[in-house]
Design a protein that fits this description.
globular; Rossmann fold; 2 domains; GlmS/FrlB_SIS; 10 strands; carbohydrate derivative binding; five-stranded parallel sheet; 47% helix; repeat; 16 helices; 15% strand
Length: 344
Amino acid sequence: MTSMMRREIAEQPEALRATLRALLPRRDEVRALGGSARQVLFIARGTSDNAAVYGRYLLEAYAGRPAALAAPSVATVYRRRMDLDGVLAVALSQSGRTEEIVETLAWAKDCGARTVAITNGGPESPLAQAADLALCTEAGEEKAVPATKTYTTQLAALAVLALALGAEVDAADLERAPDAVAALLDDPGDLDAVVDGLAGVAGAVVSGRGMAFSTALELALKLKEACYLHAMGLSYADLLHGPIAVVDSGTPAILVAAGSGPTLPGTVALAERVRSAGAAAYGVGGDEALAAACTARLNGPDLPEWVAPIGLIVPGQLVTEALARRLGIDPDSPRGLRKVTQTD
């Protein structure tokens, strides 16, 4: 029987097409609201926080705008005011109903920020209602607890945000993303080999850098949520500063990279180092050099680095769903989790 998670993974090309149809025409609205912002502040938790990491790298590397991830507890626990005049605060929540995120966005507005919501919860959701401008994704209802299509459509919304704020990229690359995801669904690469390798271990390191860092964090989270694997998501720069010691024959590394870009050579070198230490290295994306350096490799999207994360996560989602079933876990309803998580 096909899981809901697997069905929702397959729905991503159409969810992305619908989201881009809805949001690309709204670039002028975003520009009018946030075009003069001196900084962008992202407000999120969980999977949405991983999406925000992509937004931060995208804005800083391609739009030249400083960006940061907020600490919601400053607003909701410490209840401290900050000078956010000239800041564009962007809150992400799949449901639009996480009270902490809604409260933090309202706090940011009260502190002087202009505010944007990115949510699949629709324009009537509390988060959308709290924002000056709501960018509502068009993923449709997501029933499986592990987020898949709501995550990739958040990335698409962040790419639209970056275009509106001056990212020096080609919007046509973004419009190709749904077809690139469909191609990965048809041919994800060495899926069985990666599942086989992960089925016999208790933990793994998932690493990427730059634009791919968000994918490493999100894949590690999915493996923890749905497969109960002790997966650690790290930038490979941080990995090399000590945690590389945990990589051994019982702890493989999953290494994520776009097919081009400045972080690819370092990812290849890391794969070679992992293999030389007697550990398995599983690649996600990259080029033929990464494939040659790895034990097995999942395909990446035919997209440039700036938009590649929308596709890079998809083979990882497929691995997560297949591994959960291999381990006898229901990927739709992992233990201890609910679709909407409330924190203080």
